[in-house]
Amino acid sequence: MNTHPLSIAQTKFLKNEIINENSSINNIAGLLKLGTKFNYDQINQALNQLVFNHDSHRIQITIKNEEHSQYIKGYEETAYPFLDFYQDQVNFDTWLNEQANINIFAYDENLYKFYILKMPNGHLGLFTIQNHIISDGWSMALSINYFITYLTNGDIEAIS
């Protein structure tokens, strides 16, 4: 496994993780409403395409001899969880709040989570949480643009 030093920004966010253990301090969460045009398989395929083509989603942090470093995990196709909140606004709101406030940081694990949702109104949506170590507001926007473009066109650098 080839590891690389953390950037200055990544080191800062990691220190926040260590100081504020079990907090959501570095979470960047978002809910994308997708309507009724797409199904689970299409959304899941677009998410896999995103992770395949964007190494930042495969960055993992490791620690050896008390020294932190990062590496890019190989791509693995994933069946992202599907949660059904149809006509269940109360549990949907509770779940969203809980998820946005959990700590997703872990060594040698993904620093993001994707959930495909059936929202209370029956439309599909995508909920994501990404750790600031691998993402920021700008990269989230770029990722969502890539995801939507693939979802609607299906022709961007297909997984080979």
Automatic annotation (TrEMBL):
The record's section on InterPro entries has: CAT-like_dom_sf (IPR023213), Condensation_dom (IPR001242)
Q: Which Gene3D superfamilies match?
A: Chloramphenicol acetyltransferase-like domain
Q: Which Pfam families match?
A: Condensation (PF00668)
Gene Ontology terms for molecular function: catalytic activity
Q: Which ranges carry the Condensation domain? A: 3-147
* Alphabetical GO biological process terms: lipid biosynthetic process
The identity of this protein, by name, is Condensation domain-containing protein
User: Origin organism of this chain?
Assistant: Staphylococcus succinus
